[in-house]
Amino acid sequence: MGIIIKPIVTEKMTAQGEKLNRYGFIVDRSANKLQIKEEVEQKYNVTVSEVNTVNYHGKKKQRFTHAGLLRGRTNHFKKAYVTLAGEDKIDFYANI
């Protein structure tokens, strides 16, 4: 399994991609910035100038059902915000 799990395709990240040349990815929790940079450069054939990472802790959730109260939590995950150098672009919609 690769380091990059999936790209973040939201209105906010699309706007940052157009304005700041910054793209977001959900990545493996054990990956470091150098590994993320290498993987993005290889996979999308671009030059990465900066990588910022954020660790998210899973939220606790509960709901009432016919069987009673169900408790659990969402998964922990890590986001990476990758800024590209120069005029490089990533088009997530190219192969749909």
Topology:
Blueprint: E1 4-8, H1 11-19, E2 22-27, H2 33-44, E3 48-56, E4 60-65, E5 68-73, E6 77-84
Keywords:
96 residues; Alpha-Beta Plaits; two-stranded antiparallel ribbon
Can you walk through the features of this model?
- The protein is of the alpha+beta class.
- The protein has a single domain (4-84), classed as Alpha-Beta Plaits (2-Layer Sandwich), CATH 3.30.70.
- Helices cover 22% and strands 42% of the residues.
- The chain contains 2 helices and 6 strands.
- Strands 1-2-6-3 form a 4-stranded antiparallel beta sheet. It has a two-stranded antiparallel sheet with strand order 4-5.
- The mean pLDDT is 93.
Give a summary of the structure in a few sentences.
The protein is an alpha+beta fold and 96 residues long. It has 2 helices and 6 strands, in the order βαβαββββ. The chain has one domain: RRM (RNA recognition motif) domain (Alpha-Beta Plaits, 2-Layer Sandwich), CATH 3.30.70.330.
